[in-house]
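Dear all,

This email documents one entry for the complex benchmark we are building for the journal club exercise. For each entry we list the sequence lines for every component of the assembly. Then comes the predicted three-dimensional structure of the complex as a token string, followed by one or two observations. Please use this as the template for your own entries, and keep the labels exactly as they appear.
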Amino acid sequence: MDGQAKTILQRIIRKIPNKKLEVTLKSWDRLSTEQLESLDCTQPKWLFLENLISRCGEKRLGLKAVTKLEMVYYIDNPNQGTWQAFQLMEAEDDAVSVSFTQFRERFKANLEEDFRHISIRMKKLEDGAIWIRIAWGDNFRKPNHLKPTYVVHYLQTPYVFFLNFMSKHKPFLYEALFRATRHTSIKEAHLSGRSLTALRDLVMRQYQQVFPTKDRTLKERNGTPLHPNIEKEHAEYAERRHQMACEAFGDGILPKLERAVYKLETRYRGNSSNTLNDKDELFRGVVKFSSSNLLQSFHHCVATGIVEGPVTPLLSSITQKGKNYFVITDKVPGATH
Amino acid sequence: MALLTPYSKIPELNTATILLIENEERFQTKLADAIVQQEKDVNVNVRLARKLPLPLENGDSRPRVDLVVFVVSLRSERSLQAVESSLNYLASDYYLGKVCFVVTDARCGTLAQERMLRVRRLAASHHCPVLCAEHQTEEGIAMAAMRLLTILKVSAGLSPMATTALYLSSLTRCAAAPELDDD
Amino acid sequence: GHGSARQVALSPRSRSYGRSCVEPPSLFWQTPGRLTALGQRTPTARGAAKAYNITVRMYTVALLVQNEWKLSYVTPLYRFQYTKLKLYSRHLAAFILAEKQQGVAVEVGMEAGFRVTFSAVFGLAEKEEDAETVFIQIYSKPMFAADTPKMVWRGWLTCVNGDPEYLRSLPPDFVSLPLFCSNGSEYLTARVKSWFGRTFDCSFGSLCLSSATLNWLAALWTGCHPTCDIGYLKLYWSMPTQPTLDVEYTVNPHDAWELWNSICAQDGAEDMVSVEEVQRFMAGLETHLFRHFKIYLSAGSLVKVSTALGSAHQDGKIKIGSSDYITTLLTLLTECALLKTPV
């Protein structure tokens, strides 16, 4: 194992929590069962690393195997930073019939044409996701494995997700994606967050959605029924608010989004008693909502009346449009961009 | 305006009804449970609401309300605002001893001193008592329930001693500082 | 030593300078509240923020500006003398070392001891009754003389525009520096507090900032914008949802000032800001957001206000971003401290 491989292995092992070491090494599938058993995951990281390096030496594992380990860990634990969602546009006729083999060949060929030094790893998962790890170099420098870009794409869908993505690589990456997926343009989906699964669920609508219905039955949600002598005057309103919350943000376990940002470029909207009303100038500001689970918080806001229903399109656009960055102007009500 | 009136309905035998109004709906269910669990002699009905006016469609099924309790959380401005706007939907008869304020989160009083004073002023100007309740412990809830039951029995005319709501309220109502009126 | 102070402060006060007075709570509905130095008098009006003339003591004021400070209130110091600052420095250093050697210490360091400096910061006091600010720095002395001492803790006690009536009512042996700001390890803060308590028979308590105080700061800072770029006005609310929802609203400084100005323009009085104006300003901002998101921010609590001039957090942490308007900030905080100081 050379120095570079060791450095990267060290970085990866440091990142992986002790309790996840064993599982990750197993799914890495590069060490024999005996070798795995000889490793003690409860050891201090530095000692564990030393042992691991010697096992890798026995197997003659090098840089390639190490980058695979990183990828294996990222696939199982994608919350490693902020993912950004993009949407491919203007599909060509044969876009629907692109196979993984075709995708891989075209994508690699395209980038390798542009860069003399580049390292690309690709893996297709059972759920149809293609995971791509790119370590960028250039004509003079070897690929930098310490800052790889991750790209996740679902074949036959227009959605692509990026992690650790630098703008100088943008045109090359876009071009490779266009060729590989047979599309001709791409746009930012204005959706980002730590949870890749949440972003995917949002854009692909894979969460429990609730649609407006006319005849809904009042179901008891609050678990413990009330004592017969206790009566809620506003039970029906509460039910209606809950329904509105579900329609706007979904029901059950909601995709885990951390924030939503609204850039307000609107005129001042205040009470009649405030004097800025008649001005034409904009009242500029940025509103950032954040929570450990934003949709859950908004759901709770609507259900408890902190946000008045019906939910404004500004908030329901997060799920309806799959976005969490908005620029709001007066001309078009609701969200633009 | 749909006013809630105390005497438009006939009282039921050995029954008292208390209306708990809390915009946040955080404390009222626990308090209601404690109230119905604690009282064994009298049949106590509890109605829970966020604010006044109450929905018209419940008007017929709703028994005569003997005591109206406003629950204010000092943590939020809106809690107090909701109470302020609700007060207008009570018939003036209620203010003769059938209204009471319960303040929660008074422990963070340092953060909400001004709000506490406003509650006091509000209660004083409506001749109502103010109780402080601890809503985070079982004992606190039980204590609040007990105190409310005592007032409820009097205001429903069920107190064994010949005490009227009006008489009790003249003793318990929150006294405003004389200076308040000068400003 | 404190008996006479207590009596004086408890005596009924006449109202003056436009404060509204509210009696302490009646005993029926509340456990007896603590009585504080200012009773429960909160001002309904105060002067607009004015730039501070910082020609004096640039260096020390600069020290106040860099750091984040944790606030406490302090009861008046008994027999504190500005002529003995050198002595206090030695005593405090010895006290900290002694505490450390008792084995109470949690920190294990290489330092051979502490060097403490007390210094008076002249020029911050505004009124005749205000005591001069005292600045304290603690350096740890390294084992090897070649190494330079490292500053490990700093703090200051101040009084800016303190209630003159209250200050005059103190007996001559007392010095009131009600606002204590500290920066450094909790351990050293506790030692300093304990030394002050033993030496000057005073006590400390944590100082939280109410939303009313934060509202005042937001409005006063915004009012500075024409003369001094405030950069931004940021307001942070915390909503009681599950999980907690944080709302951060950054307002363009010019637009915020336009709103503030339009509110102030309605009432003629210049240089004076009334509490109603402050409330209308904050309500105006909340309404603007409500019109967009239909969210009742008043259901949560305002936890932090910040501009380029400084920031203040509900839990009693402040940052001073610029020395220009330091007097305004310290006046407000001195008052908060006095409102909390028990008598």
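Observations: Residues 332-337 of chain A have pLDDT under 50 and may be disordered. Chain A touches chain B through 13 residues (CB under 8 Å).
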